[in-house]
Structures are given as structure tokens and as C-alpha cells.
Amino acid sequence: MSPPNGAPPGTAETEYLKVPTEPKPTPEEQQPLNDLVPEDDAEVVVPPDGGWGWVVVFASFMCNMIVDGIIFSFGAFIEPIKDEFHVTKAYVALVGSLMSGFYLIAGPFASAVANRYGFRLVAIMGSVLGAAAFALANFAPNVEYLCVMFGVIGGIGFGFIYVPSIITVGFYFEKWRALATGIGVCGSGIGTFMFAPITAYLIENLGWRTAILCQGTIVFACGSFGFLYRPLKPTKVHDIKGEGETELKMDPSKLPPITKMKMELALEAMKSNESCHNSQASINRMLGVNNNANYPRVSDVYHTISIPQQRALDGSSYEKRLSVPFISEADRMKNTGAKECLLQKSANPIIVPKGSRRGSAVDPEVNRPMYRDDIFFNASLTRLPQYTSRTSIAYNLSVTRLPTKNDIEEEKKSSCKMCPEAVKRTLATMLDYSLLCSPTFLLLALGGFFTMMGFYVPFMFLVSRAENANLAKEYTRFLISAIGISNTIGRVLCGVLSSFPGVNALFVTNAALTIGGIATIFSGFSMTAEYQFFYTAVFGLAISTFASLRSIVVVDLLGLEKLTNAFGLLLLFQGVAAIFGAPIAGAFTEATGSYDAGFYLSGSLILASAVMCYPLNYINRREMQKKKEMVENKSVPV
């Protein structure tokens, strides 16, 4: 078919559409850019938004139900273990706190392993490790043995179950991510509701040792649910299809200067260790890799090739491909004119990879989930401007980071390495503590630290306090279950609220924690069944808000690129806080002879965490303004 305006056959599309192009670089200039792209076809995981994904949601729900149900019901073990070993309640509480803490601390390491070996293997490893720890805890001769076996090793096993259960759902869903993730995490509340009375029943009738053994059997069942985490087969970029015929192509000669500069900087980060040694974070220097945000996205390397569906000016129809890079609308209008811009708007994006090789050498079982910027975002994607301003295909390309050639070679050779690059790169991202230089993040992390210090205290001592006040057992047995029910309801409500872009997630979280902290301080005001169940309902709603809206708050304050880094550091902060919170509250209880002292401490910590985070939006605006001024000052010539 002839080109428009009577252009002679063989004329390049960029010539007859008058699209200005830069001079073609020499082979020496083009080689560095080409090194950024793996020799094999780039691959992207496109969420199917259904199908087997709903089976994954079920598996996630069951894993969350078992793990959180067991953790939150540990308070039932405190009295029998204390009586057998003749130790204080605070000392026994340390066992459960260690499990809660290491369950969170293990998160970054479980994520790193999952990035290389997949969700399925990590979940199965966690279930085997957790079940073995519970089985061996059955033979505990003292509390110290329980701390190591049940607390530390069991907590690490739970961490390896927990991480796949919260991120694999987001890997399968895009449009329905909020709903699917919400269903999965509701397992936490349902597990709390179910396991509290079941654990109490097992202890009363079989003893605490057999109860732990029974729980270990249930933990082992998580392996079967983990097996349902079937890996998604990555799609080669050239195989991704939009609504019509679409293609992507890598051609460094057509990249805008800004993109070239970014890619050259990324190349330095990918090709040598020098940039790692110059990094502010020693974790990067030690591992020899950079934070994932320093690597290019797929959309930085590939261009849209569009097929205009217009007719030529002379009335004849044509179908020619115009190759242009991903650039802003303003730049496109400036460089190509309104006419070409309109042609681009009407075109359908198609995807063609660099190179002619077909067939990927990459293990199809490996999806590199941690190379996605949004992997820990568990709310509706409509809150992200990256999602609302792009098509589905363009969005997935814009949040997926490219692997390095070395990364692909390690998978291709299937070599047994202690720490492959896919693992090191995830650790370098999640543990990059240079983020602590941000006042916004530092305050957010400290707030989370105080919240988690008070978080587990009611789960540990609420039932014991009620029994000490002679509340009937038919009521005390279901106090923790009531927290689980209100927690589930709260997560559903938060899911609905978060679907509205105008909702201020930070304010909602702070308000809920304020109410929850005050309610915990006054939880001992009356020991009637009605008042205690009222308190559990308020507390359950408060903590559900903290858990559900955390990723939204991080993205609103720090941006999507920082989410994985922030999530990793927050897990460490919260894990350390969880280890010490309940034992300190238990020590207060022992010292004063009253359970109320522990609840005063817990409520005060939760309240303080909310109060210190109220000015976060203001601090964040000041920080952004300061960074903007620094950039502007650097750009002014001297």
C-alpha cells in the first residue's frame, strides 16, 4: 500500500510523516544502550485478572487464616506454660512475641528468595520449617528452648508463608486487585475468630504440648495451599497484544536525550560494582547491587510502534508504522506537531522486542515478582496515577524493572549459587536504609514501631485479665474471636473506602489508631462482658485500618518507586517492636500486680503513634519543597 501524499515507495515512515529524528549514533555510541537490554526477548508478567487467580486467593486466605490465627491465639498458652516452668508471664509472653517479631523480620529475606525461586517453593519451605519447629517445641524442657524453637524458628517459617500470601494475589490481579487482596487478608480476621476458642479447647482437654503439636499439623497443611501458587508464565514483550495490532521495539537511535541519559546512568549501575561502592547504603556495597529503583523499566527501553487507522490526505487508505519513543504528550506535540499527535492517539500500541531471537532462556517458573514497583500495593490501582493515565499494557511495562544480563545468565545456566543476583537485588532494595534520611519515612517508621509495640498486648493478656476479674469462661473464650470479627469487618470497610481516590488514607489511619489507643487505655474501666466486647470491637476496627491502609499511606507520601524499599524497612521496624512490646507490658503487669498497667502502656503507645503521624502530610510537603529547591539551585548556572 502506498504512503500518503504520494510519497515514493521505500520512503521511510519518519520521512513522509515529517517526524524529526536524531542522527543515528555510531556503533560505539549505541553499544552501551544495547547492553541495557538482555539478548533474549524481554518478558513481562501480565495479570490475568481471574481464572486460576481465584484459586490463589483461596490459598492466600487459608494461609493468612492459619498463620495469624495461631499467632493471635498464643495468649491462651501463657498460663499453662507459666505454671509448668514456674516463670513469670512476661517471660512466657516473650515466646509469642519472638514468633510475631521474626514473622515480620523474615519478610525481606522471604521476598528475596521468592524473587528467584517463586512463591510456591517459599510457601512450602515455610510450612515445613514451621511444622518442624512446632513438632520439636512439643519436647520443650524450658522456656528458653521454646523461645528458640517455637518463637524464632517457627516465626521465620511463618514469615516464609506470610510473604507469598500477601503478594502473590497482587501478581495475579490488576483490575480486581483490591477485591482479591481484601478477600485474601480477611483470612487473618477469620483465623483469629476460629483459632482462639479452638486453641483454648485443645489446651484444656489435651494439654499445651499436644495443642502445639496439633497446631504444627495445621501449619504443615499450608504447604498444600502454597502448592496452589502456580507461577504465572511471563509473556514475551512481542507477544503482548492490545485491542488491535500492536508492537514495541527497541531502537536507541530514536530515544529522547533525557531517556538516553537515564539509561546510561542505569547502565553504570548494572554493569559495574563501582556505583554500588559509591552508594550511601552499605548494604548495596556489601551485596554488589543497587536498589531496584536504579534499574530501568521495560517502558524505558522499548518504544510504542503504532499503526494509524487513518486515510491519506488524497483519500487512499494506508497502513504504515510510525516508530516513536515513550515521551510526554507535550514533547510529542512540540516535536511532531498536532497532526502526528492525533495519528498516535488513534493508533493501537503493539509490542516487538529488540533482536530476532525467539524462545526465552529464562526459567518459565520464575517471574521475578520483586522487579515490579507495585508488588506490595494491596489496594485499588485506580489510586495510582501510573495506572489511570495509561493503558493496561503500558502500565505493566512502566512498573516492571528489567533484569540484567547476569541475572538471566544465572537462570539460564541453572547454577547453584548461595546468593543469586535476583536475591541480592531484592535485599539491596528492601534493606536500603538510605531511605532513613527522609524525615517523612523516619517519622512513619517510628509511628509503626510504637503501634506494633502496643499491637499484641491485648491479644496476649485480654483473656487472662478477664479471667482474673472472674468473667465467665463462656465469655472470655470469645473475646479474641470478637477482635477477629471486627477486624474482618474493618478490612472490608477499608477496602471500600480506599477505592475512593479522594480519601486521605493517612488521616483515616491516624484517627482509627487514636480511637483504638484511647479505647485500650480505658479498656479496664468496666469488666462486664458487654463493655469488654465493646472494647474488642473498637480495637479490632482500629488495627484493621492500620493493616489495610499501610501501603496506600506509603505510596501517597513517598511514591510508588519507594514502596518496596519502605515496606522492607517497615517490616524490620515493626518486627523488632513486636518482640519487645508484650514482654514489657507483661513486666509492668508483674511489677504493679494489675493487668491494667500493661493496657495503659499499650494504649499509650498506640495513641502516641497516631499523634506523631498527624503532621506527616505537612512534613512531607516541606521535604518535597526542599528537594525541589535543591534541584533548582543546582540547575542555575554560576
TrEMBL record:
Residues 1-35 are annotated as: Disordered. It is a multi-pass membrane protein. It comes from Tribolium castaneum (Red flour beetle). It comes from the Eukaryota. This is Major facilitator superfamily (MFS) profile domain-containing protein. Residues 53-621 form the Major facilitator superfamily (MFS) profile domain. Pfam families: MFS_1 (PF07690). InterPro entries: MFS, MFS_dom, MFS_trans_sf, Proton-linked_MCT. It is found in: Membrane. The keyword Lyase does not apply. One of its GO terms (molecular function) is monocarboxylic acid transmembrane transporter activity. The chain crosses the membrane at residues 52-78, 90-111, 117-139, 146-173, 179-203, 440-463, 475-494, 506-527, 533-555, 567-585, 597-619. SUPFAM superfamilies: MFS general substrate transporter. Gene3D superfamilies: MFS general substrate transporter like domains. PROSITE patterns: MFS. GO terms for cellular component: plasma membrane. The gene is AUGUSTUS-3.0.2_00459. Keywords: Membrane, Transmembrane, Transmembrane helix. Signal peptide: none annotated.
